[in-house]
Every structure is written in structure tokens, then in C-alpha cells.
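User: Run a structure prediction on this.
Assistant: Running it now.
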Amino acid sequence: MGYYFECGTCYKVFERGWQARQNHLRSTGHHAPKFECDSCPSYFGSETARFQHMAALNHFSWECSICDETWPTEGQRIEHEHDDHNYCSECQRTFASRNNLRMHLNSRIHCDYQIQCPFCKKSHPTATGVAYHLESGSCPNAAGLNRDTLYKFVRNKDPGGIITKNLIGWSGEKQYEANDRSYNYSRQGWECYLCNRLFGSLPSLNQHLNSPTHQQSLYHCPNRGCRGDFKTLAAIINHLESESCGYIRFEKVQQGIQNVIGGDRLITF
């Protein structure tokens, strides 16, 4: 049995967990406790007490893209990723040094948004950003487009398998959903039954389960000397942008992304 969540209006306790409490709030117009933790059902008499609790247990809602550290604001998370990981979350790129990251942040990439989504025309600083926008289902004008459907589209444009894997019999990835039984009392958290990673809340665990983390690789690097495997289009585009294997220049990737995700021309590099 997992956490018990409480209604902050009528104080009813929901033994079936967070989702049961959410259903109750929606149906009654009630509210969650005012000073409830972002990651667990603990709540407090003041914002100061709530903040101290989340700081002590790493329960803030903004989680680092690289490690498990959490932060109270998006700005602090971004600053942490810059300082500790040389990582640009906007472009989803990791750099070899702090100086390389600083040069990247000061480059035209972050000053001139040029690459547009072919559906909603929203601009992004890199090809990786456009690919992630489409794969994550974030485009308002491309209903139903996600990691699986985008792979099928790209695969049809890549009969030679330049960047896509020929997965015989593949029809899409499975969806997973955890429940209250996933709570590990000995470890005091919600445990992924596939990799044993611990999460502060059930929604965070389910978000992890439905991410590409435990899904198979759909793409590979076109460089035969590298041939790295990647689970998302954004990941392989990011790999090519990094120039880590020397296959293609960053600028060429930016110029070629529209042919990968739009139009009727076959993919070439």
C-alpha cells in the first residue's frame, strides 16, 4: 500500500492514492492542502516549513535533466545544469567544458531562432529542439504525432536505413502504468520495476515509465565508424549536431532537418 493523500477542504483521506484524491477534487471543487509537498502527501502549516521539508528530502518539482537533484524553480534547475553538467536543456546538448557551454550560450543559436516546426511554425534554436517538439506531442497542429508515429514517417523516407533501424514486426511501443503497489517502504519512494530507480511521487514514476528510457532504439548513427544507437529522433539529431563522431557539420544538420521531418524527398546526408 502506498501514500495516503488527504483533501485540504473536507480532510477526507484517500488510501488508494494521489489519483483517487484528484478525482475527488475535480468532482467536488475541493482543494489540496495549501502547503502540500510537491512530491509526497506531507503538508505543513506554512510555506517555510514546506520548503524546508522539500529541501531536506529533495522533493522539489523541477528535476535536473541529468541527475536526480531537484530544484524549487526552473531558473535554479537551469543554473545547476549549466554549472554542474555543462548542459543546455533548451537544445538538449552536453558540452565538454564550461567554456564550450558558455560559447554555445553566447552564439547565434540562442540569439536567432530560425528553425520552424512544419506544422505550427513555432521557431526553435536547433534541429534537436524541433525533433523533440514533435516527438513529445507538443505541437498543437499535429495531433497524434509522437515518438512512434514520427519514426514510421521517417522510416518511410529512409528505405536504405541511413538513420532508421529496420525493425521487422515493430508496431509501436508498450505503455506502462504503475500503481500504489510500486511504493517501496524500505527505500521510502516509488520504485521503477524495470530499473529500480526511485521517485518521489507516483506521477513522476509513471512519467518515467512512459518516457523512451525503457523503449528500444529506433535510430542509429549513419557513420559506420560510430554506429551508435538512439531511442529518439531528437537523440540522434543531437548526436549529429555535437559533431562527436565527425560525420557531419552542425550547420548541415540544421539545414537538413526540414527534409527529415517534412516533404516527400528521401533522406540523404
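The two ends are 53 Å apart (CA to CA).
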